[in-house]
Amino acid sequence: SYATVAPSGGTAALLGTNPLAFGWPRRDSHPYVFDFATSVAARGEIELHRRAGKPLPEGWALDADGQPTTDPAAALAGAMLPFGGHKGSAISTMIELLAGVMIGDLTSQGALDFLGTTTLAPQHGELILAFSPERFAAGRPGDPFARAEVLFEAIAGQGARLPSQRRFKAREGALANGVALTAAEIEQLDRLEAQGLDAVA
After folding, report:
1. Most CB atoms closer than 10 Å: which of 81, 170, 187, 192?
2. What is the mean pLDDT of the chain?
3. Cβ neighbours for 85, distance < 8 A, ≥ 6 positions apart
4. Residue 120 has what pLDDT?
5. Cα diameter, the chain
6. Contacts made by residues 85-88, CB under 8 angstroms, sequence distance 24+
C-alpha cells in the first residue's frame, strides 16, 4: 500500500496500512481467517467518516502538520496512526521489510514516490507463506485440526466471536436476500456505469 501511516511517535506518513492476513482450514466449518490493516483503522473507514460528516475517534490520525486530528479530511491529507502504538508500528515495519525490501519490491514510501499519486492502484510486494498443519505435526500425537477445534470451542465458550464469523453470516444473508443499497450508492454505481466501468459478476 502507499505511505499513509506515520510510525509511532512520528509526524508524517511513511508506512503503508500493511495488511496482515492469516487463515486456518477447518473440516466442518468456515475457515478461521482474518485480515487487518496495521493502522488503527482502514483508510476506507476514514473515507466513510468523511462522507458521513462524522469526526474520527481520537488517536486515529494526524493532520498534514503532524498534529492529532479528528477531522477525516485533515486525516486523509495527513497520516493515519498504527494500531497499538509502537507494537503496531513494529509489525508494520516488519511487513515493509518482508514484503518490500526482502523480496526486492517497493516499500510504501517507494510506491508513492514511484507513482506520485494515491489515485492509482499501488505497486507493492506480497509475501505469502503456506504451511501444511498435517506435515508439521507428522509423527506427533493428535490431529492438528481436531486440536485447533478445541481451541476455537474454548474461545467461543467464553462468549467471544471468532474472526470473520460476522462476515460469513453476512455473505450467506446477501446470497439469500440480496444486498440493500442506498439511493446515493445506486447513483454512484450509475455514474461508474456511465463511464464505461462494468460490474464484475
Report:
1. 81
2. 91
3. 8
4. 63
5. 61
6. 85/8, 86/8, 86/9, 88/8, 88/38, 88/39, 88/40
Predicted local confidence at residue 192, as pLDDT? 86
Whether the predicted pLDDT of 201 surpasses 60: no
Backbone angles phi, psi at 49, to 5 degrees: -65, -40
Q: Report whether 59 contacts 69 (CB < 8 A).
A: no
Residue with cell 458521513: 52
Per residue in 15-59, pLDDT (tens digit) is 999 999 999 999 999 999 999 999 999 889 999 999 999 999 999
Please name every residue paired with 20 in a beta bridge, in sequence order, or none if there are none. Answer: 36
The CATH class that applies to domain 1-130 reads alpha beta
Domain locations along the chain: 1-130
pLDDT at 114 > cutoff 80: no
Q: Nearest to residue 20, comparing CAs of 87, 84, 92, 79?
A: 92
SS3 labels along the chain: CCCCECCCCCCCCCECCCCEEEEECCCCCCCEEEEECCECCCHHHHHHHHHHCCCCCCCCEECCCCCEECCHHHHHHCEECECCCHHHHHHHHHHHHHHHHCCCCCCHHHHHHHHCCCCCCCCCCCCCCCCCHHHHCCCCCCCHHHHHHHHHHHHHHCCCCCCCHHHHHHHHHHHHHCCCCCHHHHHHHHHHHHCCCCCCC
